[in-house]
C-alpha cells in the first residue's frame, strides 16, 4: 500500500467497528452471521489510557455512534462497570502489562455478552495464553492485532506516545515498538538508515533491527515488500543535528498556528473555545495549511467574499421572488451555509490570534533579522549593529532576544560579540526580565553543544540574488507599513528564486532528502550519504541483497527529539513535486515550536549541571572523539 496514514486509519476503523458487527465464531453458522449483519447490535468500547488518545484523535463521536458504539469506558475501571449481558464489547488496548492485567480480570468476571479483543501492537505469546486461560465463560469471540501504536495527525505526519515512552523503564524499546507498529501498518520491511554521530539513534536502530529479525520467525515481516521494486527506507534523524530549524519563526499557516497558539494533537485551545484542525473535514484548512501568510490572507478574503455572495442570493427578498423548486433548492443549502459561517469564524479567530502575536512581538522585524543571520543575507558587521539595536529595545521580549543571540553565536562564533550581547541581556534598563542562570549557560554553550552543519540555504547564486533583492533590510527598524503581498508574492519578479527574505531558510532536511531521493544531484562518490549508517534486516537482505543503489520509492522519516511543521511542509512539497515517483511520511516523538525547543534545551543544561559534567551522548554535547569511542564500544 502507499504511504497514506489516512488509509491506515480507515482500514483499522473498519476492522475495529465494521467487521465486529458481522463476526461469528461458528464458521458453519452462515445464516446467523447474515442475521447479525442485518441486525445492529449496540456495543461498548473498552479502552486504556493509550488507545483512548488514539481513538479520540482518529475518529469522531458521530463515526462511533453510527457503528453502534453507545458507551465508552476505561478498562482500568472495569470493576465499576454495570453488568449488561445484552451488549457486546470491543476491547481495544495496548498490550502492556497493566492493560493485560485489567483485561484478564474482566474476563474472569465478564460484564458483557461477547468480547472482540484488539491489541494495538504485537502481543506476546504468553499474553494470549493467559487470555485463553482467563476466558472461563468463553465470551471472547476473537483476538486480533492491529498496528496503531502511534498518533495519526495528518496523511503525512505521525507521532508516537512520548509520555508513555518517557515513563517506560526502557524508552528505546518502547520507541522501537511504536515504529514497528507503524511499519506493520504500512506493510513495509525497510532498510534502516540513521545519522552516524548519534548514540541514541544507534541504540534505536539496533533495537529495530532486532525486533524485525526476531519477528521474521512468525512471518510478521515476510512478504511485506512484494509490490516494491526497491526496498523502503526508514530514516532516523536526530534533532540535535539541526537545532536551528525549531528556533526560527515560521511563516506558513499550520506552522504559525503551532508557533503562536500551540497545536496539541490537532487541537488548538483559544481563550473562548477549542478548535479541532482537520485536514479531512476542513477544506479551507486543507488547502491553506502550507500557505505563507500573504497567500493565506488573500485566500481567506476570497473565501469570505464567496460566502457573502452565496448567502446574499438566499436573502429574504430573493427568496420571495423564487418559485417553489428554486426555493427548495436554496433552503437545502442553509445547513451548509451555517457550517461555512462557523468555519469562517474559526479561521478568523486563528488568523487574528496569529496577527496579534506578530504585532505584539514585533516579529516582522525579528523574523527578518533571523533569516538575515542564518542565511548570510548581510555582512557580519551590519548584522552585529542590528543585533545591538534589538537588544537595546526593551519592547522586544527577552525570549526573542535569546533566539537571535543563539542564531548569531551558531553562525559567527565570535566570543567578543557574544560577551557584548550577554551584557545587554543583563542590563535591566534594556532587558526585562533579565537572563536566568540556565538561559545564560545555554547562550554560552550553544555553539559548542551543537556543532555547525552544512545547512541547506540554497546555491551561492541564490544567496547572492537574495542579498541583492532583499527588501527592507536597510530600513529594518524604521517605522514602516509592511506590505504583506509584496513580502510573500511568489510571482514578484523582484524576488529571487527563494521567494523572499522571510522564506529564505530551508531546513537541513531538504539536503538530506535531496541526497537520498535524487542521488544523481548529490555529491559523487562511492558513498553518497557519508553521514548515514545503514542496517539491513534479514528479510530485506534475502529479497534485495545487502546493497541498494536504486532510487528510493517509499521513505519513512523519524525525528528523535522533535520535528517542526515546517519540516512536514518540506515533506509535503517533495511529495507534490515527485510525480508519484516516491512517497514520504514524517514523524517524531514531539511537535516543536521555538519556545518548546528552548524549554528542551534549558532542560538539557539543567541536567548537565546536576550531573556536574558536560552534556553526554544522550543529551547532545560530547566531543567527536567521545562519540566515536562510544560507537566502537556499542559495535
Automatic annotation (TrEMBL):
GO terms for biological process: vesicle-mediated transport. Belongs to the STXBP/unc-18/SEC1 family. This is Uncharacterized protein. It comes from Candida orthopsilosis (strain 90-125).
Amino acid at each position: 500500500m502507499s504511504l497514506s496514514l489516512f488509509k491506515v486509519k480507515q482500514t483499522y476503523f473498519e476492522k475495529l467497528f465494521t467487521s465486529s458487527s458481522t463476526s461469528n465464531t461458528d464458521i458453519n453458522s452462515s445464516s446467523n452471521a447474515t442475521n447479525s449483519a442485518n441486525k445492529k447490535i449496540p456495543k461498548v468500547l473498552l479502552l486504556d489510557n493509550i488507545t483512548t488518545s488514539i481513538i479520540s484523535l482518529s475518529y469522531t463521536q458521530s463515526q462511533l455512534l453510527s457503528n453502534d458504539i453507545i458507551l465508552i469506558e476505561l478498562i482500568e475501571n472495569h470493576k465499576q462497570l454495570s453488568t449488561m449481558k445484552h451488549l457486546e464489547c470491543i476491547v481495544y488496548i495496548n498490550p502492556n502489562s497493566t492493560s493485560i492485567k485489567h483485561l484478564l480480570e474482566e474476563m474472569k468476571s465478564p460484564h458483557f455478552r461477547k468480547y472482540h479483543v484488539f491489541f494495538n501492537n504485537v502481543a506476546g505469546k504468553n499474553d494470549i495464553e493467559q487470555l485463553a486461560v482467563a476466558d472461563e465463560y468463553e465470551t471472547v469471540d476473537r483476538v486480533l492485532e492491529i498496528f496503531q501504536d502511534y498518533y495519526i495527525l495528518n496523511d503525512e505526519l505521525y507521532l508516537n506516545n512520548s509520555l508513555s515512552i518517557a515513563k517506560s523503564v526502557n524508552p528505546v524499546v518502547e520507541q522501537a515498538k511504536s515504529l514497528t507498529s507503524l511499519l506493520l501498518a504500512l506493510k513495509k520491511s525497510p532498510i534502516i538508515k540513521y545519522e552516524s554521530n548519534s548514540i541514541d539513534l544507534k541504540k534505536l536502530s539496533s533495537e529495530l533491527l532486532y525486533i524485525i529479525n526476531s519477528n521474521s520467525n512468525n512471518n510478521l515481516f515476510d512478504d511485506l515488500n512484494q509490490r516494491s521494486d526497491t526496498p523502503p527506507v526508514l530514516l532516523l534523524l536526530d534533532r540535535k543535528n539541526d537545532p536551528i530549524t525549531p528556533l526560527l519563526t515560521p511563516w506558513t499557516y499550520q506552522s504559525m498556528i503551532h508557533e503562536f497558539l500551540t497545536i496539541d494533537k490537532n487541537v488548538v485551545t483559544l481563550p473562548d473555545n477549542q478548535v479541532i484542525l482537520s485536514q479531512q473535514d476542513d477544506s479551507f484548512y486543507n488547502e491553506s495549511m502550507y500557505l505563507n501568510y500573504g497567500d493565506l490572507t488573500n485566500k481567506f478574503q476570497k473565501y469570505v467574499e464567496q460566502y457573502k455572495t452565496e448567502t446574499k442570493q438566499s436573502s429574504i427578498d430573493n427568496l420571495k421572488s423564487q418559485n417553489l423548486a428554486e426555493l427548495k433548492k436554496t433552503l437545502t443549502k442553509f445547513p451548509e451555509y451555517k457550517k461555512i459561517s462557523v468555519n469562517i469564524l474559526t479561521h478568523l479567530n486563528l488568523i487574528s490570534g496569529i496577527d496579534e502575536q506578530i504585532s505584539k512581538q514585533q516579529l516582522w522585524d525579528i523574523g527578518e533579522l533571523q533569516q538575515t543571520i542564518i542565511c548570510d543575507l548581510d555582512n557580519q558587521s551590519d548584522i552585529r549593529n542590528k543585533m545591538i539595536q534589538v537588544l537595546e529595545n526593551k519592547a522586544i521580549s527577552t525570549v526573542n532576544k535569546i533566539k537571535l543571540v543563539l542564531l548569531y553565536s551558531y553562525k559567527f562564533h565570535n566570543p567578543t560579540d557574544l560577551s557584548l550581547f550577554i551584557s545587554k541581556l543583563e542590563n535591566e534598563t534594556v532587558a526585562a526580565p533579565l537572563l536566568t542562570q540556565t538561559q545564560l549557560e545555554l547562550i554560552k554553550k550553544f555553539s559548542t553543544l551543537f556543532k555547525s552543519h552544512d545547512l541547506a540555504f540554497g546555491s551561492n547564486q541564490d544567496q547572492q540574488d537574495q542579498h541583492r533583492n532583499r527588501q527592507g533590510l536597510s530600513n529594518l527598524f524604521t517605522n514602516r507599513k509592511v506590505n504583506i503581498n509584496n513580502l510573500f508574492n511568489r510571482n514578484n519578479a523582484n524576488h529571487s528564486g527563494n521567494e523572499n527574505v522571510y522564506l529564505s531558510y530551508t531546513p537541513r532536511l531538504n539536503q538530506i532528502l535531496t541526497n537520498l531521493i535524487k542521488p544523481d544531484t548529490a555529491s559523487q562518490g562511492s558513498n553518497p550519504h557519508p553521514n548515514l549508517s545503514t542496517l539491513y534486516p534479514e528479510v530485506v537482505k534475502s529479497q534485495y541483497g545487502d546493497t541498494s543503489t536504486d532510487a528510493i520509492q517509499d521513505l519513512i522519516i523519524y525525528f528523535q527529539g522533535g520535528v517542526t511543521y515546517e519540516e512536514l511542509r518540506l515533506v509535503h512539497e517533495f511529495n507534490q513535486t515527485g510525480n508519484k515517483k516516491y512517497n514520504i511520511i514524517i514523524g517524531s516523538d514531539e511537535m516543536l515550536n521555538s519556545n518548546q525547543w528552548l524549554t528542551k534545551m534549558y532542560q538539557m543544561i539543567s541536567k548537565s549541571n546536576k550531573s556536574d559534567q558536560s552534556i553526554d551522548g544522550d543529551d547532545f554535547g560530547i566531543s567527536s572523539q567521545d562519540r566515536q569511542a562510544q560507537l566502537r564500544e556499542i559495535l
